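Chapter review. Work through the record for Translation initiation factor 2 before attempting the end-of-chapter questions.
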Amino acid sequence: MLSKLMMIGLVGLTAGCATITRGTNDALVVNSTPGGAQVKMSDGQTCNATPCTFKVPRKSELNVLVQKERCKPQQIRVTNRVSSGGGAAMAGNVLVGGLIGAAVDSGSGAMLELVPNPVNVALDC
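Structure tokens for Translation initiation factor 2:
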């Protein structure tokens, strides 16, 4: 009985952990006007025709190059910031005493979000 109560308590302490609830990756969406542009990201990922969706670590900072034949290429800088959901989970970790959870969230980047997301590019053609 005591072990069951301890397990329930442990689950309660980790329930607000951003790493568990949000994950360490995010979906980065790239759109262009006109559509059908090629996308090259500084982490090596590519897409042949927009719109594109990439799986990217939340703590990423990268450059996104969008180009299409007969259009001027554009490069967008994608960075990160603390999201409202991630900040709330971090505050919950600290308030409940989950310092280990707070350290994991900080290290994994789970409390962050990519900005801008979606990346919307109007190409000059």
